[in-house]
Amino acid sequence: MSDSQFDYIIVGAGTAGCLLANRLSANASKRVLLIEAGRKDDYHWIHIPVGYLHCIGNPRTDWLYNTAPDEGLNGRSLRYPRGKVLGGCSSINGMIYMRGQARDYDQWADITGDARWRWDNALPYFKLHEDHHAGANAAHGAKGERSEVLLADNTVYGETLRHHIAGGEWRVEKQRLRWDVLDAFAQAAVQAGIPATDDFNRGNNEGVGYFEVNQKSGWRWNTAKAFIRPTCYARPNFELWSSAQVAKLVMTNDEDGTQRCSGVEVWTGHGYVTVTAKQSVVLSAGAIGTPQILQLSGLGPAELLKQHGIEPVIDLPGVGANLQDHLQIRSVFKVQGVQTLNTLASSWWGKAKIGLEYAFKRSGPMSMAPSQLGAFTRSSPDQPYPNIEYHVQPLSLDAFGEPLHSFSAFTASVCNLNPTSRGTVSITSANFADAPKIAPNYLSTEADRKVAADSLRVTRRIAAQPALAKYKPEEYKPGVQYQTDEDLARLAGDIATTIFHPVGTARMGRLDDAMAVVDPELRVRDGRGGVVRGLRVVDASVMPTITSGNTNSPTLMLAEKAAQWLAHEAEQA
């Protein structure tokens, strides 16, 4: 910890924070501090793809959150993993590269009143950092394949910016394995009316196919590898503080009465250090950590803050509200005459084969993402667009972290892509070390319960197709005795779990939107029609609505936009 003053302070070295640190420190005249509460990503299980099993629930890499008991889950509480390590959730997540649907970003533009968030204006920012295995084309970017991308949406400073791109840092590859039972499920999905696809990331992800993943030659590719090493470490204007937790923001008043964030107060493990930022503090602590830090700093719902003895600086009722997440409903089918991981890993010899394949080829089950096959479709014919997503796995178990079943089986997990249920994140004390209360309020609307019931019927329809018949699928969970909407919705509450996609708790919106936390350029609102100077939020918490798929890559896109805004803002100062 060499200094106490920087140009930029980035709170959270996760998905967004690592990209921001890379982009902002590219200007050698700007000193950038990146603060991470967790340790560096030098734990070997981070980098072996199947190592997520050892990272989730491990204090070395996980915040170890749990949700409050949830009425929609029939009183159950869920484990709620969040990455506490360099790379954040990109170091422990499922590695699936998924942008969502074009309509997601068009909806953001409608909510914010800002066309710069439309799909056509978001796509170039996905391509800026992408290194796609198939090379550069209209939908993808690739390292070393120079292309010109017109960023026509950026009119912040009255000019159109043109970037010459020679490819990005974020590696996207095909998976290095296949399973007969998953191939059969894909064929069954086609027979059930879901088209085959080889690319979920062109704006309409309807279809069935193997997921593409953020891996490089069979290793996990996290944002620390992509954006921090070796680039940032070689820059003298970049500094990383790990095992350092931000306790609160430092808020001050300018001479004109405008609120400013001038820095942060950091707990180092030995004491508090106050660090100041000449340009901006950027909160990238995630959909749980960001609202917690804002509330601890006096920015949040005034009544909540007063309950915990915190003097409100700005009454922002939207801080911690609007929590959205994807809830997956896990259906398990026993099968016969086909290998699954249950049987392959049931003996020491099978486990040895798995280990040897990975050691010599970097392929096989140890290279597996948590889900290999994906499908996007409609829960019922009256849905105007694909509204459910499948994560299909050649294995089964009672719950995450428990042993595999002794019988051969596959799991077809299905989630509602656009839930209408909304939850909250709220501090439980004025102590930064105390975990916040996470209350997702799953299945709290009739619409979500209806989608849950309908999606289980879609799963059954796929399993009944001829392509799977040779394996004699038998529904083990939830069980064919449950048929009515009421039965299936209640069963969803019994067996569903999170896919770890929390967003929305510091959402963006128009300046006159009382529940918006940040404006369309991700600057924190001051509650009086303006913005707090020197403070932005850049992570999944700013999403006004959840994207139709996995949320890691959309977070990188919005960080790419924010980095450009921050850089040009500094040029104009």
Automatic annotation (TrEMBL):
Source organism, top-level taxon: Bacteria
Keywords linked to the UniProt accession: FAD, Flavoprotein
Record-listed FAD binding positions: 85, 246
Pfam family name, one: GMC_oxred_C
Cofactors, names only: FAD
Domain spans labelled Glucose-methanol-choline oxidoreductase N-terminal: 286-300
GO molecular function per UniProt: flavin adenine dinucleotide binding; oxidoreductase activity, acting on CH-OH group of donors
Gene3D superfamilies: FAD/NAD(P)-binding domain, Glucose Oxidase, domain 3
Family: Belongs to the GMC oxidoreductase family.
PANTHER family associated with the record: CHOLINE DEHYDROGENASE, MITOCHONDRIAL, GLUCOSE-METHANOL-CHOLINE GMC OXIDOREDUCTASE
Name recorded for this polypeptide: Choline dehydrogenase
